[in-house]
TrEMBL record, chain A:
This protein's name: Urea ABC transporter, urea binding protein
Signal peptide range in chain numbering: 1-28
Chain intervals for the UniProt region annotation (Disordered): 416-436
Listed SUPFAM superfamilies: Periplasmic binding protein-like I
Superkingdom: Bacteria
Composition skew (Polar residues), residue ranges: 422-436
Record-linked PANTHER family: ALIPHATIC AMIDASE EXPRESSION-REGULATING PROTEIN, PTHR47628
Keyword Signal carried by entry: yes
Organismal lineage: Bacteria, Pseudomonadati, Pseudomonadota, Gammaproteobacteria, Thiotrichales
Keywords: Signal
Organism in which the protein naturally occurs: uncultured Thiotrichaceae bacterium
InterPro entries: ABC_urea-bd_UrtA, Peripla_BP_I
From TrEMBL, chain B:
Family statement: Belongs to the binding-protein-dependent transport system permease family. LivHM subfamily.
A Pfam family recorded for this sequence: BPD_transp_2
Name of the protein this chain belongs to: Urea ABC transporter, permease protein UrtB
One Gene Ontology term, aspect cellular component: plasma membrane
Chain residue ranges for the region called Disordered: 40-82
UniProt feature, compositional bias: Polar residues: 72-82
Signal peptide bounds: 1-31
Length: 436, 590
């Protein structure tokens, strides 16, 4: 009796199990897998969790519209835990084990550089949504964030022309992005006739909190009779004590404006913004931009995240643009094959959220408008200046001696017929995908 | 039990070394990556110390020209047709409702030149971002929370909501203009402080016109300070415009001033064609430079002491738990973090009384961190006495647990902690040297905490028992000291002090789950450098490390300064493993 019962039970269990496996296989065949490679723990979690949620929201919306190529999208979320080598490991998992069609992920250039060889080796597609220092163009990566010429250079132009700034403090956190960006900016400023003695460069460690002497130096530097501005590539939460110290030492935005490249709505949402009012930030998108697309996006984001206080920011917009371009490219190519998608995506256009068009260029960067905003008391930005039309992103800076002759063109038109990410126009040689 | 201290010191050397090498490793990685970057990047150019800009706008030649021309325009405008003041407000209203900043600029000029008391109110409200206009009816209103007042007649509007209004947005240029305007309008304010502030604001870009205004007012000015500032302003204007004799006199008058724009004007005169003038200007500048340099040194010392006091505050709790008890408590940083979070919660609970929140937070943070400390001691550390390595691992685990707890319960993001109003701003000694209040209070607070702790250890019975147990546990027990209870209380005391330090740190740095990690290495460094088991050592070590760091920072950069300090400490503990003030006698072990 009992044996029969057990048998019966195990049989049922088996059948159910088998059925489940079959359905699992069936559903796996029907979906297109999309990788999400953003840190959900560690220091970068603060910023990256939002982007993971953005991709999940986009996938949900796309599935409501019927998916892509008649198949549903399925997100595969990996947590690289703000650990750069782990990024490469997780990327390999996504490509080899999960066989994702495309990956949306990474934040900071270190993490991107860490996964880059993996994507090139296994021929995957990565959409990188954050501003970066340029000097790179890979066949397998699409850079939907800003390059220096779509963020830093226009911001400096604004300061120079509209605010008539004559002396420059380039302050940054000590890592690759600020170092390279400042190198480009320094070269750019010098090309505009700014003298060596009118440029002060300063680097601080991650999470620096004792800003007294640096702010005091800036104050001295700024009180020599010429209009001074700070161009800040200070990263993450080190910004808060920096602005606080500026306020305490009585430097207001009218005296010495600070234009930041890494301070957005998300970073401002957690802090007391009073000492920051009037300081500037340069981005390609602000939550405060009045545009129908933007309003709809903010609304759907707040509904999806179930929190009316959550803000949107620039890397989120870049993620949306990247996602929309990928969906279009897959539909155009009729396949998720990386090579076909890569060919199809170049030249595609999608509306951005500031009333313009984002176009994927042959160098895998996109066109972006540049906006300068002043920080308001409510943690939002008030746009005070913007470029007339979108600026095409430039992979290799025109202001560095070593890279001004280098171009990237993955269609091969400009690079002698062969697609190349690093083509030297004087020697007419393609030296691989990376510069050095 | 004394061997514990000995062991602990040895392990600490390893910790400091490891920390050092991790810093080195990080920096060398990019150093290789960016080796082609100019050498200048690591050294901040040492600029001649200069004037303070607190409350004074920075002068800039180009700006000056701009405001000059603006003022000239508006002056001529107003002399042509002086509109009745009602008209001024009507025109200003129509201009302010436009989106263009140029139009708003015109409106602000009109308001400034109206010389109307109400214009000052308009400008002040606009500066605060509380000036709104009705979207349809295009009238200006002041919005304070939910109270909306029509600007024209000060009538409180009941049947309307904020949604019907749009803010009059301003940018930096307008803000500067408004500030100068308010200064001009409040030159005749009855309050001498306000007058002084206004004059100082005007000194930033003095023009012949504004000097004329000052000259008129100076005759009737009774307050000495204000009068002096006004005369300085007049002299500064004469520097550029007067005859040779007047100019020479003006150089003399200005040479005592530390004001930034005085100096930039003087350095313009250095290249004057007239030899007498250029010589006088150079002499005056030299005189100023010596003073500036002196105040520069004072400033560095202040910065160093303030950084040092932060180090002392973070380390002093550890000086008790590690120094006296010999427990390597890796969760010390998290106890600091708990104190900072207590401040945050107190501020959330009493949002209207931010100014008093710290007085509530300090005792509360002491209790919270103290209780957590006692719990840790009773449940974990008690079982591990005499096994420093296991203690290290266990407390490291606890630190991770506490961090994750905060992440899950409160938020993984940093939380905002506001500064009370009495802690913001700076105490201006003169226009070069200004000491920020938050740093000043923290130095005082650090000394206070140290004094209190010192008193407890020296003069209370708990202190006596703690010292007895730490020197010879068995003997103390034989004398009737309940050593287990003393251990718990001592650990609680050290942890509580860490919590109090957290309150102070919450005013300076970000409050987030990682707050503690940022301070743990520094704390151990201070305690080891000062000499384990010695409170004085902690104080001296903390303050001197702070000063050393700040002295080196201007020429070595923040990153390198930190590395150099670590190298210095490594060399120091190689030479003197027991720190600055080693314990003497039997307690010292071996």
């Amino acid at each position: 009796m009992s044996i029969r019962k057990t048998l019966k039970r195990s049989l049922t269990a088996l059948t159910i199990g088998a059925a489940l496996t079959v359905s699992a296989i069936a559903s796996a065949e029907e979906t297109i897998k999309v990788g999400v490679l953003h840190s959900l723990s560690g220091t970068m979690a603060i910023s990256e969790t939002t982007l993971k949620d953005t991709v999940l929201m986009l996938i949900e919306e796309q599935n409501k519209k019927g998916g892509v190529l008649g198949k549903k999208l399925e997100a595969v979320v990996k947590d690289p835990a703000s650990d750069w080598p782990l990024f490469a490991e997780k990327a390999r998992e996504l490509l080899e084990k999960d066989k994702v069609a495309a990956t949306f992920g990474c934040w900071t250039s270190v993490s991107r550089k860490s996964v880059l060889p993996v994507y090139e080796e296994l021929n995957g597609l990565l959409f990188y949504p954050v501003q970066y220092e340029g000097e790179e163009s890979s066949k397998n990566v699409f850079y939907t964030g800003a390059a220096p010429n779509t963020q830093a250079i226009p911001a400096v132009d604004y300061l120079m022309k509209d605010l008539e700034v004559k002396r420059w403090v380039l302050a940054g956190t000590d890592y690759v992005y600020p170092r390279t960006t400042n190198k480009i900016l320094e070269a750019y400023l010098k090309s505009k006739g700014v003298e060596e003695k009118d440029i002060m460069i300063n680097y601080t460690p991650f999470g620096h909190s004792d800003w007294q002497s640096i702010v005091s130096d800036v104050k001295k530097f700024g009180s020599e009779g010429k209009k001074t501005a700070v161009v800040s590539t200070i990263n993450g939460d080190a910004n808060v004590p920096f602005y606080k110290e500026l306020g305490n030492q009585g430097i207001s935005a009218e005296d010495i404006p600070v234009v930041a490249f890494s301070v957005g709505e998300e970073e401002l949402s957690g802090i007391d913004t009073k000492p920051l009012v009037g300081h500037l930030a340069a981005w390609n998108y602000f939550m405060s931009v009045e545009d129908e697309k933007n309003a709809a996006f903010i609304k759907s984001w707040k509904t999806f995240i179930k929190d009316d206080k959550r803000v949107t920011n620039d890397p989120m917009e870049a993620t949306v643009i990247g996602f929309n371009l990928w969906v279009q490219a897959v539909e155009k190519a009729g396949s998720t094959d990386p090579d076909k998608v890569e060919k199809a995506i170049i030249g595609l256009e999608t509306p951005n959220m500031t009333g313009g068009i984002a176009k994927m260029l042959p160098n895998h960067h996109i066109t972006k408008p540049v906006l300068i905003g002043e920080i308001q008391e409510d943690g939002q930005f008030e746009t005070v200046w913007q470029t007339e039309k979108e600026v095409p992103g430039d992979a290799w800076s025109d202001f560095l001696e070593s890279s001004k002759v280098v171009i990237a063109d993955w269609t091969g038109k400009e690079t002698g017929g062969k697609p190349c990410g690093n083509y030297n126009t004087t020697t007419k040689k393609c030296s691989g995908q990376n510069f050095e | 039990m004394s061997y514990r201290t000995f062991d602990a010191t040895k392990h600490l050397r390893t910790i400091v070394l490891t920390a050092f090498f991790s810093v080195i490793a990080n920096t060398t990685v990019w150093a290789e990556a960016t080796s082609d970057i100019d050498e200048t990047t690591t050294t901040a150019p040492v600029q001649t110390p200069n004037n303070s800009i607190s409350e004074i706008s920075t002068p800039s030649s180009s700006d000056q020209e701009k405001t000059d021309s603006v003022e000239e325009n508006s002056v001529s405008d107003t002399t042509k047709t002086i509109p009745p003041s009602e008209d001024v407000f009507a025109v200003a209203t129509s201009l302010l409702t436009e989106k263009s900043f140029k139009k708003k600029e015109q409106a602000i000029d009109l308001l400034i030149n109206s010389n109307d008391e109400r214009a000052k109110q308009w400008l002040a409200v606009m500066l605060k971002g509380k000036l709104y206009y009705h979207k349809q009816d295009k009238f200006i209103a002041f919005v304070q929370g939910s109270k909306i007042t029509q600007a024209a007649n000060n009538e409180v509007l009941e049947n309307t909501t904020k949604k019907a209004f749009k803010k009059v947005t301003i940018n930096n240029k307008l803000r500067k203009l408004i500030k100068a305007g308010i200064a001009k309008l409040s030159l005749s304010s009855p309050d001498p402080e306000t007058r002084l502030k206004s004059v100082n604001t005007m000194l930033g870009n003095i023009t012949p016109e504004s000097a004329e205004i000052l000259a008129k007012l100076a005759d009737n000015e009774k307050d000495k300070k204000v009068r002096k500032a006004m005369l300085l302003g007049m002299a500064m204007s004469t520097l550029n415009t007067g005859t040779k004799e007047q100019q020479l006199q003006a150089i003399k008058d200005v040479s005592g001033s530390l004001h930034a724009s005085a100096r930039s004007r003087l350095s313009d005169l250095k290249n004057s064609d007239d030899k007498d003038i250029s010589a006088a200007a150079i002499k005056a500048l030299e005189k100023i430079e010596t003073k500036v340099k002196m105040y520069g040194h004072a400033e560095t010392l202040f910065f160093g002491l303030s950084l040092g006091s932060v180090l002392v505050l973070a380390a002093i709790g550890l000086a008790i738990t590690f120094g006296v008890m010999g427990v390597i408590n890796m969760a010390h940083g998290e106890l600091i973090m708990l104190g900072a979070y207590t401040t945050y919660i107190v501020q959330q609970l009493m949002p209207k009384y931010i100014d008093y929140s710290l007085f509530v937070a300090i005792p509360l943070a002491f209790i919270v961190s103290g209780i957590v400390g006692i719990l840790i001691e009773r449940t974990v550390i008690r079982h591990l006495y005499g096994r420093p390595l296991e203690t290290l691992l266990a407390t490291f685990g606890i630190s991770l647990i506490l961090q994750q707890l905060v992440r899950t319960v409160i938020s993984p993001q940093n939380v905002p902690v506001s500064n009370p109003s009495w802690m913001s701003g700076a105490l201006e000694v003169n226009s070069i040297l200004s000491l920020t209040y938050n740093r000043l209070y923290i130095i005082l607070f650090c000394l206070l905490v140290f004094a209190a702790l010192f008193y407890i250890m020296r003069n209370s019975s708990l202190g006596l028992q703690v010292r007895a147990v730490s020197q010879n546990r068995n003997m103390a027990r034989a004398m009737g000291v309940r050593s287990a209870r003393v251990d718990a209380l001592t650990f609680g005391l050290g942890s509580g002090i860490a919590g109090v330090a957290g309150v102070a740190l919450s005013q300076l740095t970000n409050v987030g789950p990682n707050l503690g990690q940022a301070y743990i290495i520094d704390s151990f460094m201070v305690v080891v450098f000062g000499g384990v088991g010695n409170l004085w050592g902690t104080l001296v070590a903390g303050l001197s490390l702070g000063v050393i760091n700040k002295v080196m920072e201007p020429w070595a950069g923040a990153v390198l300064a930190k590395i150099l300090v670590l190298i210095f400490i490594i060399l120091f503990i190689q030479k003197r493993p027991r720190g600055l003030f080693p314990q003497k006698g039997r307690a010292a072990g071996d």
